[in-house]
Amino acid sequence: MSKLIPDYVFDSIYDITPEVLTAHGIRGVLVDLDGTMASHKAALPPDTLHLFVDRLKDAGIAVLVFSNNHPERVGKFCEPLGVGYISHAGKPFSRGFRKAANRLGLSMREIAVIGDQIFTDVFGGNRAGALTCYVETLDRRFFWINVRYQLERGFIARGRRRMEARAHHG
C-alpha cells in the first residue's frame, strides 16, 4: 500500500519549483498531461504552462510529457511547448517508465513523476523508484474523475502528512 503514497502533494503543478526538485537530485521530470498540465478539455497549453516548463529547463531539468492518452492529443499539446512526449505510456507499468528514463538518459533516482492520479502516476512512479509528486486534478468537476478522487483521498492525505513530517525533520 505504501507504493500508493506520493512523496509530495501539491495543490497545483505551479507549486512545484526547480529548487524542490534539484534538492532531491532531480534532473528530469515525467509530467502527466490530462488533469495535471491542463484540463482534458484543453487542446493547447495555457500561457502559464510555457513559463513553468521554461523555469524547469532553465534550471537544467529535462521535461518529458508522459501520458496514457493517444499520440494525436499529446503531440498537438506538446508541440507549442517545445517538449518531447511519450503517449500510450502504459502507466502504471514499469516498461513505459524505463523507456522514458532511457529517453532522458537518466536513472529513475534522478527523475520525478508529476501527475494527478494515485493509481497510475504515483503508483507507477513509486514502483519505478522515482520521486513522486501528486497534484490536485484540474478536472474534479467531472463525475468519474471525482469518483476516482474519493478512492484516492486517503493516500493523498498520507502523502501530505509524510511531506509535513519530512519538513519538520530537516
Description:
This protein has 6 helices and 6 strands, in the order E-H-E-H-E-H-E-H-E-H-E-H. The protein is of the alpha/beta class. Helix 2 links the parallel strand 2 and strand 3. Helix content is 43%, strand content 15%.
Characteristics:
alpha/beta; six-stranded parallel sheet; 6 helices; globular
The N- to C-terminal Cα distance equals 25 Å
Helix fraction bin? 40-55%
The description of the largest β-sheet is: 6 strands, parallel
Q: Could you name the ranges where pLDDT drops below 50 across 5 or more consecutive residues?
A: none
Strand order of the largest sheet: 1-6-5-2-3-4
By helix and strand content, what is the structural category?
alpha/beta
Average pLDDT, rounded to a whole number, is 92
- Our estimate of the beta-strand percent is 5-15%
- Radius of gyration (CA) equals 15 Å
Helix tally?
6
Shape: globular
